Amino acid sequence: MKISQATGDGQQATGKSPPFLLGLVSLSFCLLLTACQALNQPQGLTVSVQQVLTGRDIEVTGIVGHPEITERVRLEGIDVPDLAQHPWGEAAKNWLKQAIGNHPVLLESDLEPRDDNGRRLAYLWQNGQLLNEKLVAEGYAIATPHPPNRKYDQRLARAQDRARVLGLGIWNPSQPMRLSPGEFRSSKGGGREDGWVDLTG
Fold first, then answer.
1. Number of domains, the chain
2. Residue 119 domain boundaries
3. 15-24: per-residue pLDDT in tens?
4. Quick one: which of 7, 53, 96, 152 has the most CB atoms within 10 Å?
């Protein structure tokens, strides 16, 4: 009888998880989640933004080894309307300027850190937010794959789907942007990417 009773108690005990076991599982899950988040933290250079030139071009200082030099940086994985594409170009520039404010930003590189012109390409982070992605999600920019730099292509594509569904910015059905930035530049016959148009040719 004692053996049967002990077995019965054992079975009854295993029917309910002890509170300390539930706590241990929860703690383990939290630690694992924290570790995964830490591994996914962006790595790069923390710099100060001196000027926002367009919705995807900025000038920064504070590059390690060259703190006095101002360097131009282009946001990777996106394209934005030219400044001459009213009102979207100025809107993108103003949004980025306001988002950055006076705070430092982190520049994260991909496989190719510079373009053919030697300009630094980067994903722009501030307070844990990817500003390239935010520009697309709010309808100020277009997701534009630039292989081999594909680190955040899926995130940028999802952000664009969101903006299109919600009709934000360039996707606003009452005031849509008729030409992509690339098409607009081509139509200007020598239009520059900073919004200026070369009329001398």
1. 1
2. 60-187
3. 555 555 555 5
4. 96
